[in-house]
Please model this.
Amino acid sequence: MDVIEVVMLAARVWAGVVMLAHGINHARTQEGTANWFSKVGFKAPEMNARMAAASEVAIGLGLIAGVLTSFAAAGLVATMVGAFWSVHRFSGFFVFRRPDEGYEYVATLAMLALVIATVGPGPVSGDAILGIEDTFNGVTGAVIVGLGVVVGALQLAALWRRPTDAEVT
Model:
């Protein structure tokens, strides 16, 4: 493996670990996660909490294992689109802004996912074992990530509305 493949493996695994940790946390704190989803304006907060936990675990495992990598990256982007639009955009760029933190973190994860999907999973991946490591990367990977943006937007359109100030407190 060359240096770029090692770095991309580290980036893919790290993005997977981040999502897996979020998913496990959401699974362990379902009531609190559902309350948070309600507070930030999501309808059906209990369903959203369950779906967030399940999808974040699946995305994390997919990225770590490098299986259907571009689709896992698209799931990461869809998640970050929802987080950006429903919470983080209101606080500006910097993550240390309050009350809801800025969007630098979610934008960075989304860009990392785009890079992973475009460059591909590399030789140490489930996709390589399956012989599809070059099937869903490049322009195809970027298009798949674009579909992740669409999925995130559809989730927002169906399940989110900006809460009023009274609902936030």
Notes: The helical segments are 3-28, 30-39, 45-65, 69-86, 104-119, 126-130, 139-159, 165-168. The mean pLDDT is 94.
